[in-house]
Design goal:
The chain is of the alpha/beta class. The protein has helices at 14-24, 33-44, 56-66, 83-90, 110-116, 136-146, 199-209, 215-219, 239-249, 252-275, 303-315, 331-335, 344-352, 364-382; strands at 48-53, 74-78, 95-99, 121-124, 149-153, 161-162, 165-166, 173-177, 190-195, 281-282, 289-290, 297-299, 353-355. Helix content is 41%, strand content 13%. It binds pyridoxal-5'-phosphate.
């Protein structure tokens, strides 16, 4: 068997669009494909303005800069995330405060969030793990009551909704990734959505993204030359990458439909294993959420069983992989003063979670082979 964890899916239009971008002659940022990408995303993220950036990480850095996080400001985020969420805050001198996650979604546990709010808290950063989320209406209400900004790490969540409202449109800003491992890819790339009305933030974002210059005003013909007008960095992606991304976005709905079939196939095969007590749990889509089916995971009762089963699947050519080392458990988390037991559900997820192969072109037969191999490995472990 050779069923990798992830496999690049091409729609077939990528080379055509790259050629178009090359022939147009502007392969730096803000070429012909960039507005097509942003228009598409704005239609899918109503009530926001969207700008492309060079990565999901840079979208997070830009959002934290725009939120004017100052040294000493506290930002609450789940520990169960990628380091970029915390780095974006630390690069401005802010302090990431890690909260625990809810066992059903592995997203922020809002009761735990509430306990961690102090006079220094400025912002909440929910992470939409695997394309699902915590109750976003409650989170936004909590933020409003306490005067906090919400920036969504929606790196994995383009196309998902909560109560029919897209993820990435609930907070002041949303951050998306088109990294080669996500559902829709440009290779490296990202986007930021900024909720309307947003004139002030949007102008700052455009300046920041273009190296602190008003180049965007120049491109629009509003000024005759461009110059340094503020703080900034280089976050505009090459139009070659936007050409690839546009080809992918055009097939977004078909891509999510294919992933949905695999995801629901897994749920059907694996539910009996959970019911028999062979597993602690599996990916679920909570009430009020529609998912983009970014990943599918199972939870084991303990870490050593997880590691042995993973090994067994790997030996059969099945690319089952663990996910985040929780940030509070990492060497950097220890430096920030956390002990692994501080966030028990997060620690459990770090120890016991295994992601199964899920990619757009995966067949139902491959999904069945993985499920069967998992069942065999579990029966071997528990000798039944
Ligand atoms: C992928 C990811 C990022 C980083 O995005 P890049 O485009 O790789 O920089 C940040 N946060 C989460 C939750 C992610 O999954």
């Amino acid at each position: 068997m050779n069923i990798p964890y992830n496999k690049l899916y091409l729609t077939g239009k990528e080379l055509l669009y790259i050629k178009e971008a090359l022939e147009d002659g502007n392969i730096a940022g803000d070429g012909v494909f960039d507005p097509r990408v942003c228009d598409f995303l704005e239609r899918r993220l109503p009530g926001t303005s969207v700008r492309s950036v060079t990565s999901g990480t840079h979208a997070l850095e830009l959002a934290v800069a725009l939120a004017q996080i100052q040294p000493g400001d506290e930002v609450i985020m789940p520990s169960y995330t990628f380091p970029s969420t915390a780095n974006a805050v630390m690069l401005r001198g802010g302090i990431p405060v890690f909260c625990d996650v809810d066992e059903e979604t592995l997203c922020m546990d809002l009761e735990d969030v509430e306990k961690r709010i102090t006079g220094k808290t400025k912002m909440l950063m929910p992470v939409h793990y695997g394309g699902v989320c915590c109750p976003m209406d409650r989170l936004v209400d909590l933020a409003r009551d306490r005067g906090l900004v919400v920036v969504e790490d929606a790196a994995q969540a383009l196309g998902s909704t909560y109560k029919e409202k897209p993820l990435g449109t609930w907070g002041e800003m949303g951050c998306f990734s088109f990294h080669g491992t996500k559902n829709l890819v440009s290779g490296e790339g990202g986007a930021i959505s900024i909720r309307k009305p947003n004139e002030d933030l949007l102008e700052k974002a455009e300046i920041y993204r273009q190296k602190g210059t008003n180049r965007i005003q120049f491109i629009k013909g509003e000024v005759s030359q461009y110059t340094w007008v503020g703080e900034g960095s280089s976050y505009a992606p090459s139009d070659l990458l936007m050409a690839v991304l546009y080809a992918q976005l055009e097939e977004m709905d078909q891509i999510h439909k294919r992933r949905s079939s695999i995801y629901h196939g897994y749920q059907q095969q694996i539910r009996p294993m959970v019911e028999r007590g062979l597993l602690r749990g599996m990916s679920t889509i909570p009430n009020n959420v529609t998912s983009n089916y970014h990943n599918f995971y199972v939870l084991f009762h303990d870490g050593s069983t997880r590691d042995r089963v993973r090994q067994r699947l790997q030996e059969q050519g099945i690319g089952a992989v663990i996910h985040f080392v929780p940030l509070h458990v990492s060497p950097m988390g220890a430096k920030l003063g956390y002990a692994p037991e501080d966030l028990p559900i997060t620690k459990m997820a770090g120890d016991c979670l295994l992601r199964l192969p899920l990619y757009t072109a995966m067949t139902m037969e491959e999904m069945m082979q993985v499920s069967k191999a998992l069942l065999e490995a579990l029966e071997h472990e528990y000798d039944r």
